[in-house]
């Protein structure tokens, strides 16, 4: 069966998926501030006849609840953006009833300039700063999430899913293969969907929480991997729904259980030599490696609002609860916020363990890379390596969303690298969400304050 010419520009997995079949629909997608997929679905025949479509730029002012933040630029005229397909992102939507493709689009204004508040453009901006210096950033993300029982009443607490044994998934089963087998059918569908979409999974394992799973991805280009995480969140949710449960990427969905992180491994390659700049010619720590760590120690407080973007995010930052809420660094030390894994000199890297899985993957990677970039430019050295239990360290990070936003907006270096217009819009959206949260009375307040104060 003959397909439109644009299919020939798609990755091999997409071409194979529709081989011998009639493509029915194309979903034209852009990620909003929260990382929610916005866009249009259209017949494949119509998509083949157009090279762009339009959406109002106000989608980047929409909060996670669907409300609208005030536009910090003033007038709220909602001009259209021009969205053009990035054919390198074409991938299947294998859970649909018909043959459907998804395509991530680039957002430009009507003068052809990248829309500065579009999250994918923010990450491209940071990658571009590295490229201007002759560097190529490389990342490897780890995704943690929970499979939970269907929850259709938000007033009820989240509980673990029912496993194949008829029992609910148990906690404290880290790395247990039998624990993963409890919801093996969901995992099977995740593998099948990922294969159909051309995504390579480096490994799946059981984490410490009840129904908590971790998926590791191979290292690569930050924009491409952010695209994958964006797609993965959707495919994982779809796989869970097939088996009567939910997949959630909330930072802390279940009281008393650990939270879900998006650990990010970083290295930087010299574009001329192809060598990892974190190692010198003798395989030792290069000065740039220490500068990168120093930048993360210095600037991560200003990036936390992007790595922990919701009120719930800060419930994960609990001392002694498997979440390193510090800026210490150490080799093979999982109590530090910045961990240096065991590796060869060629693979020397730093792992940022502070990001939550609820972050927008484009913005989480952009914020983390921005900290390392500033460190490379400033050329400072980090504090001495932590050789003990970093859980005992003093608090150095903002532990509320409001404080995190204050630090981000007050940081001139962070505002400069992320873009002033983006920071202003991001703050407006998050302040609006926080204001909405304060209107809700929690069960804790009703239980302890109703009759006692």
TrEMBL record:
Gene3D superfamilies xrefs: Glutamine synthetase, N-terminal domain, Glutamine synthetase/guanido kinase, catalytic domain
InterPro entries, A to Z: Gln_synt_N_sf, Gln_synth/guanido_kin_cat_dom, Gln_synth_cat_dom, Gln_synth_gly_rich_site
Keyword Electron transport included in the entry's annotation: no
Keyword annotations of the record: Ligase, Magnesium
Record-linked PROSITE patterns: GLNA_ATP, GS_CATALYTIC
Necessary cofactors: Mg(2+)
Name of the protein: Glutamine synthetase family protein
